[in-house]
Amino acid sequence: MSGRPTEGDQTREHILACLSPAPSNAKIIRTAARMAEAYQGTLTALFVETPEFASSGAEERSRLQANTRLAQELGAVTEHVAGEDISFQIAEFARLNGVTKIVVGRSNAASRRFPGRRSLTDRLIESAPNMEIYIIPDSLTDSDYRVREKRVGKPVFTVLDTVKFLLSLVMATSLSLLFYRWGLSDANIITVYILGVLITSVVTEHMVYGVLASVASVFIFNYLFTDPRYTLFAYDIGYPMTFLVMLLASLLTGTLAARMKNLAYQSAISAYRTKILLDTNQSLQHASGREAIVRATADQLSKLTGRDVAIYLPEDCDLEALLSRGNTDARLYGPIRLGGVLYGVAGIDVKDKPVDAFENGILMSILGECALAMQNEKNAREKEDAAVLARNEQLRANLLRTISHDLRTPLTSISGNASNLLSNGEEFDEATKQRLYTDIYDDSMWLINLVENLLSVTRMEGGGVELHRTAELMDEVIAEALRHVDRRKAEHTITVQNTDELLLVQMDARLIVQVIINLVNNAVKYTPRGSEIIISACEKDHMAVVSVADNGAGIPDEMKPQIFELFYTGEHPVTDGRRSMGLGLALCKSIVTAHGGEIRVSDAAPHGAVFTFTLPVKEVQLHE
User: Fold this and answer.
1) Helices (H) and strands (E) in the chain, counts
2) Which pLDDT does position 546 carry in this prediction?
3) Burial of 618 per CB tally in 10 Å (0-12, 13-18, 19+)
4) Is-contact 253 198, C-beta < 8 A?
5) Which of 280, 519, 526, 554 could make an SS bond with 548 (beta carbons 3.0 to 4.6 A apart)?
6) Does the predicted TM-score (pTM) go above 0.85?
7) CB-based burial of residue 400 (10 Å sphere; 0-12 exposed, 13-18 middle, 19+ buried)?
8) Which domains, and CATH codes, for the chain?
9) 411-422 as b/e, with b when 16 or more CB fall inside 10 Å?
């Protein structure tokens, strides 16, 4: 079967290569890989584990592991399923996973041993009639290859299983003798022995005990319950047919019981490993940071394989060089790779026991989950860094925009007034000169305060300010601050209310003076002439409480949550070019917080705003 895919089909082809420990399987894998490359499709390598493979030898397992590694090196995703009917499992997997082409090797071994039974390829064609199946001819696949049972490992006959076998026969014979004494028919006795065969097949490890129980049951029934009794002869012409039916029924039920036990064992292993995969997914989702992801992955791999696991990261060694060594008899290396990016390599100690195909598939899935978690962690970290960079850029842009606007107007005023005084100073009267001098002084002081606030905010935000705490009287600090308040304070009524004359506070006096200056200047700036400003200080709950209240228009409720944020200016109109940069209150909050206090804004009654901040007090001890 051949054909060149169209351009639309090239993106939809899914090639399935069948994995096996057969010597020719490497050729099948390479052929499927070339097809996937030619069709620009995806490649999956599937291994179906049968109960027969569970007893395979080390040579078959090693060859299967080598074929699995070859498939992975050629870009295949390896999968593993368990079942007895290989053709059915392949067909179902292909149907559920959207496989378009199946590549298998030709094998006539089954038909040679059982002439009436069709080969695997014939049964696969029947199970998937609408699937494109590519059969690879090869001299090795035509050979009589079959999985050979391992020579070492558990013995077929054990003392415990032999005791169970004999006990089951004794119990079945005892119950049959009781039935015979009660006069029950031979059919009931035969049923008891069939039940004994079932029990033997279930409680023993090897299938041979079920076969022996079947044969022994026929001879015991013939010896004890057929005429003449206590001999192996039978007078009734129908007894040989009874013996044959009994033997076939016993063999069939025993074989089915043994197979069901093997399937239950495989299902338990599959459920355990699937649980590990789900636990891995949940652990990686809750892992925070790359170290936690690596630790969770190593724990799950160790739990899955029962072996020592080491995970190498890019800073530990050259990962590509580590992978290029290949797998050794003592160590298995698995790449933690996603989208061509190698995040790490997992090294698993396999010197005691090699990793089987099923474990290898789950192992690769765990490593894939680890790679995905590392990529998500990297993306989150880059996103966070980008957000910080964007926030810094926004702050820088706001700062430059605000400075460019707010510095231009006062500087223009200063330079213009100075130019007028230099050029036309002799023509101005004394009152005009005083007004120009005052404007120059006010604009320069505004610039000085602006730069001082800007530098202070920069130092506070960067953690570059070291507090020099001393015990200071609060009324002296307030008095010092009022000496440096805007000269327009004369247009307002400022009152100081200090209920505690000896309110001693542990503070950096220079910084707290700056806080009071900023709060009073805000009150002067945003209240009309003649407004009243009240500064009060008291002690409450071992904290000094300082308030600056005014009876102006107040602050809208929607502005209060953001008023202490850097560069937040609200909606104050620009009247004289001296717009606020949103630095003063942000600086106040930084200084008060550094002292271990809090600052807040509230409404004054009947109108106005109250800014309140707290500071730790200093215990005063008076000695008489």
Assistant:
1) 17, 15
2) 92
3) middle
4) yes
5) 519
6) no
7) exposed
8) 10-142 (3.40.50.620), 159-265 (no CATH), 434-616 (3.30.565.10)
9) eebbeebeeebe
